[in-house]
Amino acid sequence: MWTHAPWQKRFLPHPLPPQERLKAYATWCNAVEGNTTFYAVPARDTVETWARQTGPDFRFVLKMPKAITHDRRLGDVGAEVRSFLQAIEPLGPRAHALWIQLPAAFVPADVEVLAGFLRRLPPSYRYAVEVRHRAFFEDERSARLLERALANVGAEWIPFDTTTLFRTPPTSDMERDAWTRKPRVARRTTALTDRPIVRYLGRDSVDETVAGWRGWVGQVAEWLREGRSPTVFIHTPDNAEALPLARRFHNDVRARVPELEPLPDPTRAPAEPPTLF
Questions:
Q1: Region (Disordered): which ranges (predicted)?
Q2: At 155, phi and psi to the nearest 5?
Q3: 0.85 surpassed by pTM
Q4: What is the C-alpha to C-alpha distance for residues 120 and 62, in angstroms, rounded to an integer?
Q5: Structural domain spans, the chain
């Protein structure tokens, strides 16, 4: 996401060499979703540049490759898991959680497969699971079944809150596209661990997006008071305003929990990339 085209020149200096782009993003936010790892395992030297561009407290929530979660459905994936973990090793503590996003075809009957997969993973990493089948959100027995499997290994359940997007019909091409691709499930606000992770999807309208996250502001503030360390990712259908919106959400939470550390100050970053002249 740190190379998202609508952010260039508006929020981030442009052009920048690849080894500087994440560093610029990290002046705005202190966490990032690693979505590219879903499509291909990154080269280790690429991951080393990610580590060099970020401080030790920066959080990567890295999606496991689809070869593991979607193609092989968590079965006989030992070699693929080892390859992925070797590649991301340079991140060290920056690997806040490894994100296991499961397809909508993953149903409650498959939970035991997930449980076995989680038990085989090394305990040196934290794991977080995202499910999309509606039964996990509408059937209490299915939800409890998944919660038990996750709790047994200290894994978190990542809610993807799309309720604001689906509240009213879409009004733009990007919203219509999101309607066809994003899961329509109930909002879930239960944390299983001390590191809850939330993915929130709003609308093109800033006002609607902000109105839709008000409940999350209170929930995240409560988690902080309980001593938890939540991570929240703010999205809109086109993500054009996601950076300032993420900072606005953080400020809303900080208004309730003043001891929360402020985000980095992007105004201190150079407006243009350095040159020789």
A1: 257-277
A2: -95, 155
A3: yes
A4: 18
A5: 1-158, 159-260
